[in-house]
């Protein structure tokens, strides 16, 4: 069966949550809590079909084999981004058996084009080391001096 590439629908919410749990398990090596899964589902249900989230899926035989999620939000205007509209990419993930086939690149390219079309001026992501060459090919640049303060 052919691979279908499309945007997310409400019917995909639980499969996306499961895919995200698998991705995070691969990264962190531990299971995510039930509360985390529920919070992910609630977020997806709230933001699907809005300008606050862009999500592309690759589907084969009814199953998600690759995914990209872009969350869109606003910051105070910047010199090069007067509207302050930015995006942050989460959950770039392809099942192991489908890696190296260009799925993530295709989904990322579509996500970037959609982001441009809705007025996003900057896209951020925190890339896994193995994916940095792909992100650079797509035009991303490594930014130094970025910091985070976790308040919990």
Q: How are the SSEs placed, and which strands pair?
A:
Elements: E1 4-7, H1 13-28, H2 34-47, E2 53-60, E3 63-74, E4 85-94, H3 103-117, E5 122-125, H4 132-137
Parallel strand pairs: 4-5
Antiparallel strand pairs: 1-2, 2-3, 3-4
Task: Walk me through what this model shows.
With 152 residues, the chain is an alpha+beta fold. The chain has four helices and five strands. A five-stranded mixed sheet has the order 1-2-3-4-5. A hairpin with a 2-residue loop joins β2 and β3. α1 crosses α2. The model has no long low-confidence stretch (mean pLDDT 93).
Brief description of this entry?
The chain is an alpha+beta fold and 152 residues long.
List keywords for this structure.
152 residues, alpha+beta, globular
**How far apart, in Å, are the first and last alpha carbons?**
46 Å
Structural class: alpha+beta
Mean pLDDT: 93
Our Rg estimate from Cα atoms comes to 16 Å
Per DSSP E runs of 2 or more residues, the count of β-strands stands at: 5
Arrangement of strands in the largest sheet: 1-2-3-4-5
Backbone shape: globular
Q: Figure out the total of helices.
A: 4
- Poorly predicted regions are none
> How much of the polypeptide forms β-strand, as a percent range?
25-35%
What's the story with the biggest beta sheet? 5 strands, mixed
Order of helices and strands: EHHEEEHEH
Percent of residues in helices? 25-40%
């Amino acid at each position: 069966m052919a691979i279908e590439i499309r945007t997310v629908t409400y019917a995909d919410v639980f499969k996306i949550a499961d895919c995200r749990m698998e991705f995070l398990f691969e990264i962190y090596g531990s299971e995510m809590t039930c509360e985390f899964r529920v919070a992910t589902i609630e977020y997806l249900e709230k933001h699907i079909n809005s300008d606050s989230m862009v999500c592309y899926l690759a589907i084969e035989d009814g199953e998600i084999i690759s995914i990209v999620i872009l969350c869109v939000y606003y910051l105070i205007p910047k010199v090069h981004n007067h509207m302050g509209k930015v995006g942050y990419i989460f959950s770039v993930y392809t099942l192991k058996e489908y890696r190296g086939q260009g799925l993530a690149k295709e989904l990322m390219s579509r996500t970037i084009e959609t982001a441009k079309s809705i007025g996003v001026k900057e896209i951020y992501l925190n890339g896994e080391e193995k994916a940095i060459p792909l992100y650079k090919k797509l035009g991303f640049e490594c930014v130094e001096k970025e910091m985070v303060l976790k308040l919990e």
